[in-house]
Amino acid sequence: MKISKRLPKPRDRGSALIEFVLFGLVAQIGILVFATDLLAHQKIQMAVESTAKQGARTAALPGLGPVDIEEILRQQSSNFGLQPGRLQLSLSPNQPVAGDLVTATASIDGISASARMRVPR
User: Fold this and answer.
1) CA dist., res. 27 & res. 111, Å (int)
2) Does residue 88 contact residue 108 with C-beta atoms inside 8 Å?
3) What does pTM read for this prediction?
4) Phi, psi for residue 46 in degrees, rounded to 5
């Protein structure tokens, strides 16, 4: 005579799928929050670098007269979708002459970048 013992069926069928979906969802939300913050920081860094380069290029062009810093800031703020007034730009020297080395420094919220360009002779 053969005695066989029947094992009870587990009642957690499908729970692995539910756990995977829940933990996966939590991980995806965490990654999304981190990536969004990182992309916002990168956007600001690109705006600052681009503004510094544009300021140096504009100041180094011969024959244009005084540089309109407000126009550069307005264009760059519009290009990067920033609120007007957040982006700052300073040029040194203010009125460059042929042969001068122009330094443009742009900043926003503690992030800054500089660009240098020589005014052609």
Assistant:
1) 30
2) yes
3) 0.72
4) -65, -40
